[in-house]
Amino acid sequence: MLESGINLRVIQQYLGQFGATMPAAQRRVIDAIIDCRSAACGAILYQCEDCGEPHVAARCCGNRHCPVCQQGKAEAWLIRQHERQLPTPYFMLTFTVPSGLREFLRRHPRIGYGALFAASAGAIKTLAADDKHLGADLPGFFLPVRALSPIFRAKFRDAMRAAGLLAEIDPCVWTVDWNVNCQAVGDAAASLAYLSRYVFKVGISEGRIVRADAAQVVFRYRKVGSSRPRTLALATVEFMRRFLQHVLPRGFMKVRYFGFLSPSFSMSIEELKGRIELAQGFTVAAAPTPAPTEASRSRACPHCGEILRCRSVVLPRPFGSRGLLRPAVTSMPFAAGDESG
Fold it and tell me: Distance between CA 29 and CA 199 in Å, rounded?
């Protein structure tokens, strides 16, 4: 629905207002959303493994900011994280920055966001290395947030000084508290489900858009502290401006893994689970795997319900010659989120 409300005239209008200062990444997102599930992205031929019925599906753009393309990726990520859960209590730490940093981070997203990752991880490591701060023997406590906050702020400030950007930041942000929250979440199942939506969240989900055309976009929302659904109508150009504020720099990693989740960790998850269970003296039942969502169930054959297997992919020709397609034959099992090829 989103792409149907953004036509060439609207794009030209938007570029006329913001094109001079518009990051290249935002323009790529516009092009990807317009092309998503159109001839410009090609098509995929599937065949049912049981009844042999063929099915043709339009390919997705695969852009991580496209509302259509993220549901399958979120579900696949959630399943992987459930497989990596350890039989131990979990805590979720949330680091935030004051509002005075927002404009600075919009101007310098790559350096600023990268520094936030490094500063938050560094603050955790600093306190966790000090036995007097680590609450490993207390189920409801991990690290003191009052101690984390100033360390987090100081490490970010050091990073901005090293990058030569300290003068661009309002000095007031260094005099206020930076909110850090640390919450016990049990076996992490609910938190992983929350994070899967948050990590793969785009500016707005497709399901919230009620109507979209060249004049305006109408979407649903809820006010903070209220459960009553509301609708808001925005001029399409203004909607695009707000939506594109969520576009991340190209190549920027939204998820980074440390410790036993790091790819360089030498011990397998199975061995690590075994050592924890041995130390506790009993075996802990594994957390249940998330139930398949409607998005994944829709990839089954509509005639018999069996698995669809990809048989061939039709891709657009290179160099922007949209509409002129060439086949690329392949054979692979289908997985949710693979529509991008």
Answer: 18
Contact of 17 with 237, CB cutoff 8 Å: yes
3-state secondary structure 152-198: HHHHHHHHHHHCCCHHHCCHHHHCCCCCEEEEEEECCHHHHHHHHHH
pTM for this model (two decimals): 0.67
Q: Domain map of the chain by residue range?
A: 90-186
- Cβ atoms 74, 197 nearer than 8 A: yes
CA dist list (Å): 338 to 243, 293, 335: 24, 15, 6
Q: What are the CA-CA distances from residue 154 to residues 94, 102, 117, 150 (Å)?
A: 17, 18, 13, 6
Closest to 44 in 3D by CA, of 35, 53, 54: 54
- The alpha carbons of the chain give a radius of gyration, in whole angstroms, of 23
Cα–Cα distances in angstroms (integers) from residue 185 to residues 1, 78, 136, 141, in the given order: 36, 16, 14, 11
Contact, 133 vs 93, CB < 8 A? Answer: no
Q: Band of the pLDDT at 37, cuts 50, 70, 90? A: confident
Backbone angles phi, psi at 38, to 5 degrees: -120, 180
93-124 confidence digits (pLDDT tens): 999 999 999 889 888 888 998 999 999 999 99
Q: Phi then psi for 153, rounded to 5 degrees?
A: -65, -45
